[in-house]
Amino acid sequence: MQEAVIATTQWLEGVQQTLEPYPWAYTTLVLCALALAAWLANFVTKRILLRGLRRLVRRLPGNGAGNEGGSNLRVISRLANLVPSLVIAAGIRIVPDLPPQLVEFVIGACQAWAILTVALAISHALDAANELYERRPDSRSKPIKGYLQVVKIVVFVIAGLSIVATLLGVKLGPLVTGLGAATAVFMLIFQDTILSLVASVQISGDGRVRIGDWIEMPSQNADGDVIDIALHTITVQNFDKTITTIPTKKLVTESFKNWRGMQEAGGRRIKRALYLDQHSVGFLDEGDLAFLGQFALLRDYLQAKEQELGQWNGRLREQGVAEVNSRRVTNLGTFRAYVERYLRSHPGIHTDMTLLVRQLQPTTEGLPLELYCFTRSTAWGEYEAVQSDIFDHLLAILPAFGLRVFQASSDAMLMAGQRQLAGSE
Known about the structure:
single chain; alpha+beta; 5-stranded antiparallel β-sheet; 3-stranded antiparallel β-sheet; 15 helices
């Protein structure tokens, strides 16, 4: 081993003597060798050590084919970036004929990179801690994501100050003291800019608003598509083609609605009621059941209902109970069953999502029969067309069930009666 070191030293001295007529040739050669060493260190760390570690993590209990310990590996991958910078910081001092200022700058840059790498690794470690915590059953009621974000902010603030102190060649203590004295002035002068910057970072980080999103913010008279996201403002083109600019900080401090979730889910909700006249609700007789039994959508329902009620009423007759206690089919219940089956057979309705037909609390305006479902298309025009088509059909078929829509009467009949009386006189 000692002989190899001596031979290498002699070889380097020979190379140096050979390149002595060319002042920068030997320096360039050593720099290239240093860069190659840093690249080899990065290659060995990333391609060999991390690959082996990834295979080891896959074999650990709880890490299946779809789970490779993502956050844990991101922490190690970040820390692996320290190796090339350490190699450069250690080797730059042995490069001959470099200005001392350049050497100090390269060492400072490597140290700054190391600080940033450690800060990013800590951030990924906090993400991994949050992922592990969210596996607990009580994580939904007691989330810790907000606290971890505060820790991240503190870590990055300290890292930023450390990087600035390293590049300037000063100690961290005096720098923090000087910044503390100027913080109040900076916050007063650049208050809006600082708030907007923090809001922009938060918005871009959690993805709450993106270009092309449809957002609704009544407090700012905004209801349309986001067309631009800048530092201070977010521009929204409303559906009436007007333009609204919203301060970026408003999207953090105030509530708004983003319809992106609806568009990504692939279904748009219909939540609308038919108001029925309660005086038109009644039982169906044999003739009504025979007529409604011709509807293909009701055939199975009426057969099952007839069998169910037949068994129920048969037991009542065996007990000698009066016929008035028997159960009968109502036109409202049959219509509700028809509406549900009609919606499930409609090509424009998303049957994999929630689908309900329910009665709401009766009001002075009638009995609300609410339709709660989702259309397959999220486009505004197609959504309105499907919704209108459904209610057109239901309003037209109501009389077949003996039901009426409740609505306030106008004076049209009264005026017509008065004209008839005037004509007869």
